[in-house]
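Final report, Chapter 2: Outcomes

The project's central promise was a pipeline that accepts a single protein chain and returns its three-dimensional structure in a standardized token representation, suitable for archiving and comparison. That pipeline is now operational. To close this chapter, we reproduce one record exactly as it appears in the project archive, with the input sequence first and the structure output second.
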Amino acid sequence: MSAAQTEHHVRPVVEGEPLAVGETVDIRDSATGDAFATVEVGDEGTVTGALAGADAARRSVRETAVAGRAGWCERIAADLRDRKPALADALVRESGVPVTSARAEVAAAAEQFDRVADTLRSLTGKYRTWTTSTREGDNSLVAAAPLGVVRCRPSGRAPLAKAALQVAPALGAGNAVVLTPPPTAAVTVSLFAEAVRATVPTGGVGFVPTTADADSPEARTADAVLAGEPDGVTRFEQWLGGGTATLVFPDADLDAAATALTEGGPSAVDSRLAGADCVIAHESVQDALVERIDERMAGWVAGDPFDESTVVGPLADGATARQFERQVDDAVAAGARLVRGGEVDGRVCQPTVLADVPRESSLRREPVAGPVVPVTPFGSTATALRLVTETGPVGLARVFTDRHSLAMDVADAVDAGLIEIYGSGADDGGTRRVGLDAEAARAAISRLTRTKRVRTL
């Protein structure tokens, strides 16, 4: 289908102006399978040009007072809410998430900007006393200065929420920004970038779709680490993916664990931010836990993503659905027990529960796109720790036990961006949030600034 026939034609935006580039990618509508967008994809040269354009605009961004940047974030949040219908529609068509989850993602993105605005209004500078070889008791103001230009790389999984999680603190810290999403998220992120550009100084936000895979292991960095790029550019990547590891010990509240594993379905915003679940349960409670998970998943409806009752939308394409089917079949062939689901109809995968999943199963070691909860049993704490650490770092780890010392041992052993502990006294009644709370927002802003010492002589 030609670009003129598609609903959306997405181009890079450099210094506030659309830029025509050669390579194009057609994006298929997850609901119908038809092409609905044509994306012009930039190469690293295009990205370099966008970074240079943002660098030219960074002074006007940097020189905006903190209160002014807080105002930006509030206006962007309001604009995102006004654009909810268009943003939700793009999310459904690009990602295949149900429309209810798409609306929730728009709300979550707006909330991140509001959170950063609140955090910015509470920031203060500090006076510190310095002692050097030549001066003693030297009082100086320690101020935070922007880094300059930040390259943000939202991925195809929860692209709008990830873009907000990266861009809000970057702009709040006074940096210019360049967004480089994959083509599969380009329509949603282009609409997001349009809302941001309407508020910040001209050129302060660049946008270049690129085929670089933001979800690849090489592109990940743990918990919003900053990685250096040429010419003083900072790459900001939040490792909200990497999957979720859930450990369930014999004394766990199994109802709370089953609820945490199924609440909102696989398309819930926080589930997509954290990544697919891998469950490790003690052999004495595995069957009881699986029974509870199965009961809760019975209400998951798979089908049309625009249907308000749908919990599980279609996958992006037939190849991804066939990969999911292969992973489930391989696990069963290796000894896993299929409790629910496993069927694939075109791009729609039925919600699936597996017990006795072997440790070497690809469901534990490869990205899983479909709606599945694989449960692997363990017999000892040492085995549980080995199972949860041998597959590498995870985005979120959840520990269900009443033994605080055991939970802390797990927390020490697991490499995760966020660790949640659920004991008998813990509040397990709410939906988990993987986004920026007040503390995380302050930390993200801090990482996107450098320390500047101001001394009066």
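Archive annotation: The chain has a mean pLDDT of 82.
This record, like all others produced under the grant, will remain available to the consortium after the project formally closes.
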